[in-house]
Each structure stands twice: as C-alpha cells, then as structure tokens.
C-alpha cells in the first residue's frame, strides 16, 4: 500500500488520487501528484484562529474574549483590534503590541482574523 502525502492546506491524512491529481476530501484542495513527489517534506506549523482561519505574520486580529493580564489589573477587552501580529512557537503563539497595554503574547484560540 502506497502512502500519499497529507493535504498541503489543511494537513488532512485522507488524501486520494484522481488521475494525475491528488485530492483532499476535507477541504477540497487539489494539487499535482508530480509536484507533491518533488517537493521536500517540510514540517510546517499552521496556526489557526478561533474560527479556523489560517494566520500569518502581519495579520490584523480582534480579541473574542476578555483576557485578564496576569500580574496586573488590566484587561484586554472583547473587540480589541491587534495589528501586525508575529507568529511564534510555544504556548502563546502570537506576539503583538496592544495600544495602552504594550507588548504581550496571545493564544490563537482567543483571536479572530479580520
């Protein structure tokens, strides 16, 4: 049994061949089987927001939940717009600057892409 590569968009393992194309049944993405065979296998981490949108460096997001700041009486309110985010590895996968608060790390599960 041959193993097919996972979907490059959603990383689903349920890909199948359709002629010369590979197809992902979960997201509907189609790509060439020859390109997939030639591409080096990279372990790319995809960071998604609370509703499943893929985040990238420089995106603008909004906070979807009041977030208390540890060690402070400040709160990041729902609807706060955060511009120019940077994606990082670790528990808090977004580094950003929030007006009135300063530099901090956020978890992607508490933001929504604009």
TrEMBL record:
Span of domain Protein YjdM C-terminal: 47-113
InterPro entries: YjdM, YjdM_C, YjdM_N
Pfam family, one: Zn_Ribbon_YjdM
Span of domain Protein YjdM N-terminal: 3-32
Similarity comment: Belongs to the YjdM family.
PANTHER family according to UniProt: PROTEIN YJDM, PROTEIN YJDM-RELATED
Protein name (Swiss-Prot/TrEMBL): Protein PhnA
Organism annotation: Roseateles terrae
């Amino acid at each position: 049994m041959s193993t097919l590569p996972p979907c490059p968009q959603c990383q689903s393992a349920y890909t199948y061949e359709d002629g010369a194309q590979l197809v992902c049944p979960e997201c509907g993405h189609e790509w060439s089987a020859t390109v997939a065979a030639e591409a080096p296998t990279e372990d790319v981490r995809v960071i998604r927001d609370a509703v499943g949108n893929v985040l990238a460096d420089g995106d603008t997001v909004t906070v979807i939940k009041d977030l208390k700041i540890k060690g402070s009486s400040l709160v990041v309110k729902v609807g706060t717009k955060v511009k120019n985010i940077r994606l990082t590895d670790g528990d808090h996968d977004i580094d950003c600057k929030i007006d009135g608060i300063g530099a901090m790390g956020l978890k992607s599960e508490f933001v929504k892409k604009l």
